[in-house]
Automatic annotation (TrEMBL):
Annotated catalysed reactions: L-glutamate = D-glutamate
Gene Ontology molecular function: any one: glutamate racemase activity
UniProt keyword terms in alphabetical order: Cell shape, Cell wall biogenesis/degradation, Isomerase, Peptidoglycan synthesis
Family listed: Belongs to the aspartate/glutamate racemases family.
Name of one Pfam family that matches: Asp_Glu_race
Keyword hit for rRNA processing: no
Active site location: C75 (proton donor/acceptor), C186 (proton donor/acceptor)
Designated name of the protein: Glutamate racemase
Binding site for substrate: D11, S12, F43, S44, N76, T77, T187, H188
Gene of this entry: murI
Highest classification ranks of the organism: Bacteria, Pseudomonadati, Pseudomonadota, Gammaproteobacteria, Pasteurellales
Amino acid sequence: MADKATILFFDSGVGGFSVYREVLDLLPQHHYLYAFDNEMFPFSEKTEDLIIQRTVAVCKKINETYPLDLIVIACNTASTVVLPALRETFDIPIVGTVPAIKPAAQISETKHIGLLATKGTVKRPYVDKLIEQYASGCQVEKLGSTKLVEIAQDKIQGDSVDLIALRDELAVWKNIEDLDTVILGCTHFPLIKDEIRICLPQVQHFIDPGLAIAKRVAFLLENVKLRSKNEVENLIFCTKQFEIQNKFMQALKHRWGFERLIVLNLDE
Ligand code: DGL
């Protein structure tokens, strides 16, 4: 039996690295694959059907060559719609990333909290149910933004953060003085947490689910019969060529130990 699990992370872009880095910290021994659907980026305002179809197609394609032991959908926009379809397709644990509403409601002292997510996520009935279930005693503000996703994506690809655009995007919350807790309900946002904090100085707690997901992965792996081939090379997959591919890979190799980038052809 192989002793390294092959774990795939999936997102539309670089947001999933905010989850991956927590899992890697806790479980450095495994074989990691990271896939991002840059052909469809950003997912924020895409239809639910398209997101389901793309996520399942990418995961299936990779599983053909690299038998997967566990998949982390490191994207809230996708997780809020795709988990049932993935669980029907794969017989392995599927871990989703959904807005951390329960811990936010618990930690807030003012009981006035904000959900910062994509435009798609803030509209999902799944999220309304979480709020109903875990935050009925709180006033919950929702802010859906595609711009913030793009700002975070640019930052990881080497651009400086446009603080003015960021401030404008968050301006509607600036004067809500008792907003003490904000849920980072898109995996891109922990990557610009320091910059978001500058724009919302009244917020005491920014909640992201990275560490909780890492613990969940560790727990689930205890009972998984590994199918992987004990591969060692950590790989990145995307769905279309892009201009700064080489620069991007160099940064990721040093930062998070990925060796190569493979462009998937989903039509093959
Ligand atoms: N990082 C993703 C999320 O957690 C999606 C961002 C996007 O492509 O809109 O929602």
